[in-house]
Amino acid sequence: MTFTIREPKQTETETEERRRLYMELENCIGCRSCLAACTQCGGHEQKNRNYVYDVNPLVNRETMPLMCLHCVDPACARSCPAQAIQIHETGAVLSALVEKCIGCQNCTIACPYGIPKFDEEENLMYKCDLCIDRTKDNIPPMCASVCPTNTLQWLTESEIEVKQSKNDVGNDKWVTSMPYLEGETNVTVNLPGILQGTVKLF
Q: What range does the record give for the signal peptide (predicted)?
């Protein structure tokens, strides 16, 4: 399958502003285009590193993409005794380095979201690296490039702030789909009006 990549129109000012992946989960229709696109990201070796989760398949058709949130202080990296998990200058938390990973799987246990996966054949941990070959040049990751409903968006900090202000519930908190977020992340997740009583914790 071939994808047409939608490159954002960028002004000179925008190219200097940091961009992050923003997720509006209420838009997800479960098409799984993001999964197919993930396999075509450079360095992924045709392997999908993201997931689409059926929230409650017995009751409704709600789905949500699940991917690495690229924590600012990632538990996976802290738990690695071989220092195989590196953090790129853009904030992306990368997959384990082949030459350093010892296959201990500490990272798979430490991650509160169950993101890192262990490849037994290669004896190596792999996970979403935010398409670092693209995002380091401010090009959107493959998943955001093909999402037909804008569930996944590659936005500037100021654009994210505008979206957050629309869903503000007071006290500098805003509605999110993940009330269990532990610490600051480089991926922003928003699900307005569906899960009442959940707030952004960081």
A: none
